[in-house]
Structures are given as C-alpha cells and as structure tokens.
Amino acid sequence: MKVAFDPVYCHPLPEGHRFPMEKYELIPGQLLYECSYDQSDFFSPKPLKWELAAQVHTAEYIEALQKQTVTAKEARKIGLPMSAELVKRELIITQGTVDCCDFAIQNGVALNVAGGTHHAYAGSGEGFCILNDFAVAGAQLLTEGKVSKILIIDLDVHQGNGTAKIFENEKRVFTFSMHGKDNYPLRKEVSDLDIPLETGLSDKEYLSILRSTLDRLIAEQKPDILFYVSGVDILETDKLGKLSLSLEGCKERDRIVLETSRKKDIPLVIAMGGGYSKQLRVIVEAHCNTFRLAKEIFN
Question: Where does the record place the Histone deacetylase domain (predicted)?
C-alpha cells in the first residue's frame, strides 16, 4: 500500500482561517498510532514539474502562480492566502496524485492524504483548489499511453466543476459527479454524468444510488483506471455539506468503491477531498476509514 504524504501538506494558514489544515497531519498520525499503516507505506512526493501542469492549465495562469501575480480578487475566489509556499504545497500534492497512478497500476490502489482539488479550472483556481490534481494526473497517463480510458468518481458533496470543464471534450475521460444539488458551486458545469442530490439525503438512498450507478458506469465505460474523490463533507455533521449521511454510511460509500475496484481488477487512485465537520476528530475518523478499508480490501 502506498500513500502520498509530505509535511508541507500541513502548510500553516493565518490564525482563524476556516480551512482545516490540521487534518493532513492527523490522518497519517492516527493511522501510524493504531498500527493500521507502517511508516514504509508513506512516500513524500517531489514538486510537480510545471510542464506537466501545462497539459491542463493555461500558460497565463501558470505564470501568475510562478510570479505570484494572482490578483486579490482571484485569490479570494480560491479562498486561500496566496504565497510561494502555498504554490509549492500544491505542486507537491499534485505530484503525489501523479505518483499514486503508477503505484495503483502496480498494486491495485494508492491514496493521497490530500488532493481531490476538483474546483481548479484550466485558467483559475477556486474553492481551496489551485491546481487540478486529477486532471494533471489523468492527462499524464493518457500522454504516456498507460491507459486509454479513465473514470473519475467524484463523491465530494460539491460538484467537480473544474474537472468537468477541463475534460468536457476529452472522450477518454468520463467524469461522474454525485453531489448536493443545493450546494456550492452555485453554477454547475456539465459532467459526463451528474447526479444532483436533494438536501438532507441519508444513508439508504445515497448508497442505493451509488451502487446501481457505479456498476452501470463501469460496464459501459470499461475504464482502465478509477480516480476517486472521497470527500467526507457528505456527513450530517458537516457545516457546508447539506446531506445527512452517518459516519457508517460514509464508510460504506468508500467500501462500495474500493470493493468494486478490487472485484473488477481496476486500479484505483484515491484523493481525500473536503470535510468541514465542526469537530476535527469526526473529519479525521471519516478519512481514516477510507485508508483502513483500503488496507482491509487490498491486502
């Protein structure tokens, strides 16, 4: 089992900032403490080379990130205080997902403690996302000829709008987003398949929709690899989510995706996505469940 994590994931933000950076340190810490994972399971990615980012991001946007000329308005849209250190963090996270692709092809599954930056567009960032890690990693796989069809399973509560837009004309990538209908972003993009969910939807209905949809998509698309955004902002405790899944329901969601990947023998790359429950321990526990299941199912 290989997991991407680097201390730079925990890059500090100004006091009182609402983005929960602490989870990136606490997730691997908990997994090591309980002996679910060994230190040897974790690897530290190097920064992504800009030419790989350029496969999906515009030259103008990349230059603005490199020269730190992102405007105040653009930074507000991203929702993070821009700095050279933050951009380096994003490059390392994105490379982590790129590396996870090779590990998943070799071993069946690989996970990034961060990633799932699905709101980043080709020419801009938003919603805590600067570079689109799945778009970069997917484009690189296709360029290298390692796969011919990618299925992106985005189960974060927020639509993967940036990913949908980047791949809107790429037939080798199928984008599937199952998200809250009344949630951010206000203006949705068009994925290859969008399933907007009613506010307050609970475990039974959610899991039923996912089971039937995922089996059908894999049968139809015949993907060579699966990308999975496993955001835990679907929880009823989430401050931003508007859905009503229990911690056990969220875990069962992960089990469905992981067991489907194992049963179908399709490599699986997992990135964490969002999570904004009031209690940090709930966020960490929900994310740790994803890692625990990966060990259980793929060992």
Answer: 21-288
